[in-house]
Amino acid sequence: MAKILALLLSLMLFYTLTNNTASGCHRKRKRRSAAVIYSGRVVNFFLGCLQRQLFGRSGYGSSDWNGLVSYAVFHSSWYETVSADCMGQRDTIACWIEALTGFMSGSSPLLRASQRCVKAYNDMMRTSVTAEPVYPTGLQISDSQSCPIVNQSAYTIEFKENALNETFNTEDTTLNELTEVIQFVQNDMLCKNCSCDSLETDDAIFDFEDGFSCGNCWSTKLVLGTRMTSKIRRPGKLAARRRGGLRKRKKSRRLNA
After folding, report:
1. pLDDT in tens, 29-41
2. What is the pTM of this model?
3. What end-to-end distance do the CA atoms of the chain give, in Å?
4. 209-222 b/e with 16+ CB inside 10 Å = b?
């Protein structure tokens, strides 16, 4: 498949046309990109496909996916990585459905629904039904007993306040749908290479208790699953530090992974 199809596939999997314009949020906005406008012609197929695949699923059947799709496309490290990996000779359906296992838990209904929609869209474009692929299953989300208790409401408010002066694309509804994003991070999102070391930066030095796992605790996993260039990484990092009870220290030392 062509390079542009790879881009469209990821956009179509994780972007929805409904409620594109944020309401009640005083944020600066950018104009819509040509790629997103063009992808709108086919996004409805994937939106309908995901809704059909997840119909009747408790906790999944009624979601509009605005938060998830915005976070995945505009901010996630996963999207940045897979856009580079599934290119050239690896620009295949097999590559994309395999890559999804690095982003969604193997026990999440979202994983198989997304994989099946990739296959269904490919069949539609080919105007023929291809053989059913082998759908790989990813790892399970690990539970950690050492995670801090975070007040989600207070965290969300502080996260948004920290991002008030940032400029976002018009289609990016991540902040308005932050509750949905957090639910995805808690219940569905994998962060295989997340390490507490990644949070040790010049502007936010953390001190972690022994046994703390940043890739398993949602407040830090959300930050670590966000690409370094994202404008929500710092707001999320500051909220995680303050609301998660993580201490800032002056001297740098190696942190637990």
Report:
1. 444 454 444 334 4
2. 0.76
3. 39
4. eeebbbbbbbbbbb
Instruction: Report H helices in 107-148.
Output: 109-126
Domain regions of the chain by residue span: 3-126, 152-248
CB 146 within 8 A of CB 256: no
**Torsions phi, psi of 104, nearest 5?**
-125, 140
Query: How many other C-beta atoms lie within 10 A of the C-beta of residue 2?
Result: 8
Give residue 172's Cα distance to chain centre. Answer: 12
How far apart, in whole angstroms, are the C-alpha atoms of residue 67 and residue 252?
A: 35
Q: Among 193, 201, 190, 192, which residue's Cα sits nearest to residue 236?
A: 201
Strands 28-30 and 167-169, sheet pairing: parallel
H/E element holding 12? Answer: helix 3-13
Per DSSP, 119 falls in state H
Beta bridge partners of 201: 204
Q: How far apart are CA 76 and CA 188, in angstroms?
A: 14
Query: How far apart are alpha carbons 10 and 96 in whole angstroms?
Result: 8
Radius of gyration of the chain (CA): 18
Residue count of the chain, please give it.
257
DSSP 68-102: HHHHHHHTBHHHHHHHHHS-GGG-SHHHHHHHGGG
pLDDT in tens, 5-35: 444 444 444 443 333 333 333 344 444 454 4
